[in-house]
Specification:
Blueprint lengths: L4 E8 L3 H16 L5 H21 L7 E8 L3 E8 L23 H9 L2 E7 L2 E9 L2
Antiparallel strand pairs: 1-2, 2-3, 3-5, 4-5
Helix pairs in contact: 1-2, 2-3
Length: about 140
């Protein structure tokens, strides 16, 4: 990831780390007023949904760590989120929003896919590597 500006956060995958992500993305907005607020908001939605998934489903619970690396590029926002979860990697193909308003499971990845231009996930050397890309408009 080659970027004009890079940001990094290392944390345990616990609920409190979501606040750290919000704070970091607020900093990105302050330091990059040229990034459209809508692009940053959609990107933040996707990042928080994926990180929330890692927090909720990562195993062993409370012992999973993650590294969030963000590059602000002239044409896109791109991040690599790696996590150490032993949980099997979810399938990203054919994710759709649940039809029932009462069914909250399964919304995170579908929401992230709607907010992003690209989302990839691979399991390499014992870590999950999420690549999230939002083109700037």
């Amino acid at each position: 990831m080659n970027g004009d500006q890079r940001y990094r956060l290392e944390s345990l995958a616990v609920p409190e780390s979501l606040e750290d992500l919000h704070v970091l993305l607020e900093q990105v907005g302050r330091e990059h007023p040229e990034v459209a607020p809508a692009d940053l908001m959609m990107f933040e939605t996707a990042v928080v949904e994926i990180a929330g998934n890692v927090i909720e489903h990562g195993r062993p619970e409370g012992r999973v760590s993650f590294i969030f690396e963000l590059a602000v590029l002239p044409d896109r926002l791109e991040c690599l989120l790696t996590d150490t979860s032993a949980q099997p990697v979810p399938d990203l193909d054919d994710r759709t929003m649940p039809q029932s308003d009462e069914d909250e499971d399964g919304r995170g990845i579908a929401l992230a896919q709607m907010a992003l231009d690209r989302i990839d996930l691979e399991h390499v050397d014992g870590v999950n590597r999420w690549t999230l890309v939002r083109n700037r408009h």
